[in-house]
Amino acid sequence: MWRRFFLFSKLPIRPIGSIPIPISSSIHHLSVSTKPTFQTSVALSDCLLRSSFSTAMGSSPATVSLLKLNDLRDNKGAQQKKRRKGRGIGSGKGKTAGRGHKGQRARGGVKLGFEGGQTPLRRRLPKRGFKNPFSLTFQPVGLGKIARLINAGRIDSSELITMKTLKETRAIGKQIKDGVRLMGRGAELIKWPIHLEVSRVTVRAREAVESAGGSIRKVHYNKLGFRALLNPEWFEKKRRLLPKAARPPPKLWIKVDAIGRLPAPTKPIPFCPKERAAAKAAMGPPPAPKPMPAVI
């Protein structure tokens, strides 16, 4: 009997579906159903079945065991106990806590950049230039780009062209720090009247627009005003009111024509000399200069 069992176990494996099952498994079921009297024969056949199945699956019998949650462990050395200092001499890190006696290292240490008393590197190197905290950064946009957008139908020349219009049509970038400067590049393409509101404008650009019958108004917006101008939906989403237009600081009064309007206007306002004077009067008189203290 055992000779025939040995010969059957060496037969090739017959795949059924996607999992190959050896022929010896049928013999195992047959042997179990017959219930032999000897326990050793059942154990031997079970061992042969496991070894043949694991060999068919491409792994050794030692790696067939299933993964269990109660067998999960960290790698050796992955977790280390916290080193407790100053808890008695028996711990090895008591009293001086591993710092030794006296000296710079035994105390609080030194500040960053201290080089033992010599002149540190930050003082040995010379200074170069400075950063002006009052400088303003404007995004430039040329008249030629605006003319091409009008010809393409992306900008309506009959309406007022604001900085919001320039941003929505991608004539300028997304980051508008302190405003937009209108440049005279492509001024020969402007052959019809257009009306614009920007932060700054060059002399060539103003002459080109006004010669075609248009107008340019230099308006002032602060940081919060630019947010309300370019993204008024944010205030509506947060259920907040639009802020009031801020007055320019005294040093910028001579560089702007009027205070920016909120929300973004769509109709141009004619700019005659009387309206220019009225806009200047609305901004208020400039502050009186402070008297100089008398030198005794």
Brief descriptors of the model:
296 residues; three-stranded parallel sheet; 10 helices; Ribosomal_uL15; Ribosomal_uL15/eL18; ribonucleoprotein
Description:
- By secondary structure, this protein is an alpha/beta fold.
- Helices cover 30% and strands 9% of the residues.
- It contains ten helices and eight strands.
- It has helices spanning 2-9, 24-34, 39-56, 121-124, 143-151, 163-168, 203-211, 223-230, 232-237, 273-282; strands at residues 14-16, 19-21, 139-142, 180-183, 195-198, 200-201, 215-220, 258-259.
- The strands form three sheets. A three-stranded parallel β-sheet has the order 3-4-6. It has a three-stranded parallel β-sheet with strand order 5-7-8. Strands 1-2 form a two-stranded antiparallel ribbon.
- Strand 1 and strand 2 (19-21) form a beta hairpin.
- Helix 2 (24-34) runs antiparallel to helix 3.
- The radius of gyration is 43 Å and the shape is elongated.
- The chain starts with a helix and ends in a 14-residue tail after the last helix.
- Residues 15-19 and 23-40 have low confidence and may be disordered.
